[in-house]
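Task 17 of the worksheet. Students: predict the tertiary structure of the chain below and write it out as structure tokens. Keep your answer in the requested format; marks are given for formatting as well as content.
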Amino acid sequence: MHILAIAAEVFAGEGIARASMSKVARNCGISKANIYHYYPSKDALIFDILNSYLSALRDQIYGLSLEALSCEDKLYLITREILLAYEGMDHEHKIQTEGLALLPKAQQEILKSYQRDMVELVSRVLAEIAPPQISKDARQIKNVTMSVFGMLNWFYKWNPKASRSARASYAETVASLTLGGIKGYKVN
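Model answer:
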């Protein structure tokens, strides 16, 4: 994990194209040969960073105990946990934005599957909340779902040092806006 954290910092700070495996090794306090012992290429290292980050995020969200909650409380809990899980993951989040498209298609598909799983979970909860004319329209539910992620990512991008209580408070704002908006949502 030490190599992944240091590499994420180097890649995020310098940009993936400019960052070198030599710098990653130097910052890790190991030789360049040693870094190549663990990772045969920069792509392999980027994939491992993103795979670790996204699979852990997905597992955290899927590990929530949602069964006994109302649909509204599910949405509050999920949005809060996503923002709390983002805490301290600035480098990984930046690499996700820049690096995903640089990886081979098979690796991209693995990483995108984690993202799709989280989108699907939020979509299911929103479909339970939405009026029937919306809940049966997959495109409309996806639009609302992506708006939720857009609001969460906006907050994260512009408030990376936000406290846990600020993150939880904003997640509640997102859930409240979504809950109020979806019930009055007009189909295009």
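Marker's comment: Residues 42-183 form a domain with the Tetracycline Repressor; domain 2 fold (CATH 1.10.357.10). The chain has one domain: 42-183.
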